[in-house]
Design goal:
Layout: E1 2-7, H1 11-24, E2 28-34, H2 37-47, E3 51-55, H3 63-70, E4 75-80, E5 96-99, H4 104-117, H5 126-135, E6 144-149, E7 152-157, E8 161-167, E9 170-175, E10 178-182, H6 186-192, E11 198-202, E12 205-208, E13 212-217, E14 223-227, E15 233-236
Parallel strand pairs: 1-2, 1-3, 3-4, 4-5
Antiparallel strand pairs: 6-7, 8-9, 8-12, 9-10, 11-12, 13-14, 14-15
Helix pairs in contact: 2-3
Amino acid sequence: MVKAIIAEDEPLLAAELHELLTRLWPDLKVYGVAKDGIEALAMFERHRPDVMFLDIQMPGLTGLEVARETAGRCHVVFATAYDSHAVAAFEQGAIDYVLKPYDRDRLEVAVRRVQQRMAIPPPSLDRLIEEIARIAAPRSYLRWIKASKGRETQLILVDDVCYFRADAKYTSVFTAGGEALIRMSIKQLAEKLDPEGFWTIHRSTIVNLKAVRGVTRAFDGGTWLTLKHRPERLAVSEAHRSRFKNM
């Protein structure tokens, strides 16, 4: 049995990663899920895992700092929301990564590579961690949106948005207080939002996870989200339903 620890400060993503690992690596036993770097380091000292799955950006200590403290004592897989250009440093072979939102195919590759390394001692990662820290600097995401409601222009805090929905050439913005329009396609918007907090649930809909009250599953297999501050339900397309199995 291979011992593992997951460090991920977003509970939904942590649950998703745990479920995927259970399916892809039956011999892996997750001894704990840490919500920050300090807790992850304490879990490491308590359980001495064979592998750690570390979110790069965490409160307390980052995943990079935890990896630096445990280097040479366990294998590491980093979880990151950065795009393919920023993860170039991971491809040097001694360390692996999986992109967020978690992708089963990429995680399967990471698992297979870690399994192959289990026969050798974990390498020293000091130089590689410094390179990753340099390349994977925190990305800046959209914080404010300029929206139109009739002839009025509003500034809306992204955290106050319940969800976005594509509307022809525009995108509708729904908050607890109403609805407005922005001159940006849903695809352009998705590239500017923090992928850990905003999930695409349909080709025309992006939801703020903080605005979700719960998940309803219909007898026909359909999945619907209920919201904390709005009465409507949001349909989750079949391609995205697996992400909500643990909710």
